[in-house]
């Protein structure tokens, strides 16, 4: 799998999750913190290299969590398998640490509570994994890690039958979701830790006309905001790169040329906007 193609798929669609009406008022960020702290606690009783079960609080029962501490060298040499997630060899934790803990979650019946995408239905429980610095377990300052992987991370789902309308969804902590094409059956690819799921568009017959318009409005509005945010991020990345490379005085002249290049991902997004077709 070519990473270039992957990054294109990555920008397929970006929408913002509606805030939903979560009655228990727990956000995915606070879930993440609870899960992380429990995993670090459980880690004290387990050896490096062993997958162990992490207990979840009573009021979050149904969510399955496991953890594994590994050395960075092992991650790079052999990769790591935990739950439905496979990180291939050649991955490096960013920032670099000596040991890390991988925390894996399967959200089970809580999936749609945390990840409710207007216009789409989840087809399998959402799976998440995060990585944290585990070099110093007595440190109160826990660093969340990203991965720099040469080959994509795979997340394998258990599904019955392959439907052409299945899409992979990757969920960001700031309630953004990126939808992209599923290129191999029941498998989604990722570049970094995060939450992943499989969705299908809601069938038209199921939504009443009135409701449909509202969904259209919400999804459309969110898509526009999402695109603007991606635009802003790209603009910022571009500016940073430009300032680094050119310094201030040459910057202006080159600007218009370079902006042309950064347009590509937006164009891909506008062309393939499944959200608006299916509402
Ligand atoms: C949810 O929690 C936040 C603080 O974490 C609070 O400001 C907000 O009012 C709460 N919302 C509800 C509906 O309880
Ligand atoms: C779950 O229980 C813990 C105490 O065990 C409490 O601090 C937390 O707020 C509860 N969370 C929810 C979502 O009810
Ligand atoms: C999920 O199932 C468990 C029991 O297995 C239950 O306690 C919990 O309330 C359920 N969660 C939701 C969001 O329905
Ligand atoms: C680990 O963290 C504790 C608490 O922050 C600190 O006192 C200690 O010096 C750290 N150890 C190392 C090896 O960095
Ligand atoms: C926590 O660790 C990060 C990265 O090592 C560092 O940049 C940050 O200053 C630390 N924060 C505190 C409060 O020690
Ligand atoms: C990721 O790895 C590539 C090659 O292995 C390297 O060129 C790049 O600088 C790395 N990026 C980060 C953020 O470490
Ligand atoms: C999500 O939030 C982080 C900071 O919390 C930000 O850097 C990133 O650009 C945001 N992503 C989107 C798509 O808004």
Automatic annotation (TrEMBL):
One Gene Ontology cellular component annotation held by this UniProt entry: membrane
Endpoints of the signal sequence: 1-20
InterPro entries per record: DUF1191
Domain of life: Eukaryota
Transmembrane region(s): 213-235
Keywords associated with the record: Membrane, Signal, Transmembrane, Transmembrane helix
UniProt cross-references to Pfam families, sorted A to Z: DUF1191
Protein name as it appears in the record: Uncharacterized protein
């Amino acid at each position: 799998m070519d990473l270039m193609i992957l990054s294109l798929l990555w920008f397929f669609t970006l929408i913002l999750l509606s805030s939903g009406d979560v009655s228990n008022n727990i956000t995915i960020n606070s879930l993440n913190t609870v899960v992380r702290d429990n995993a670090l606690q459980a880690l004290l009783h387990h050896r490096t290299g062993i997958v162990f079960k992490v207990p979840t609080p009573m009021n979050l029962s149904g969510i399955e969590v496991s953890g594994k501490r590994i050395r960075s060298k092992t991650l790079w040499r052999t990769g790591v398998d935990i739950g439905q997630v496979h990180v291939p060899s050649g991955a490096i934790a960013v920032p670099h640490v000596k040991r890390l803990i991988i925390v894996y979650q399967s959200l089970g019946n809580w999936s749609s509570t945390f990840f409710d995408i207007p216009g789409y239905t989840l087809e399998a429980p959402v799976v998440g994994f995060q990585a944290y610095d585990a070099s110093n377990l007595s440190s109160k300052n826990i660093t969340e890690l990203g991965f720099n992987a040469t080959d994509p991370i795979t997340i394998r789902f258990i599904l019955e039958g392959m439907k052409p309308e299945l899409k992979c969804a990757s969920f960001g902590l700031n309630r953004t979701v990126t939808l992209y094409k599923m290129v191999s059956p029941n498998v989604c690819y990722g570049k970094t830790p995060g939450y992943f799921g499989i969705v299908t568009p809601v069938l038209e017959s199921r939504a009443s006309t009135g409701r449909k318009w509202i969904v259209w409005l919400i999804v459309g509005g969110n898509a526009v905001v999402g695109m603007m945010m991606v635009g802003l991020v790209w603009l910022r990345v571009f500016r940073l790169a430009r300032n680094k490379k050119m310094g201030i005085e040459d910057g202006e002249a080159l600007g218009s040329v370079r902006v042309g290049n950064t347009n590509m991902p937006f164009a891909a997004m506008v062309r393939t906007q499944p959200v608006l077709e299916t509402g």
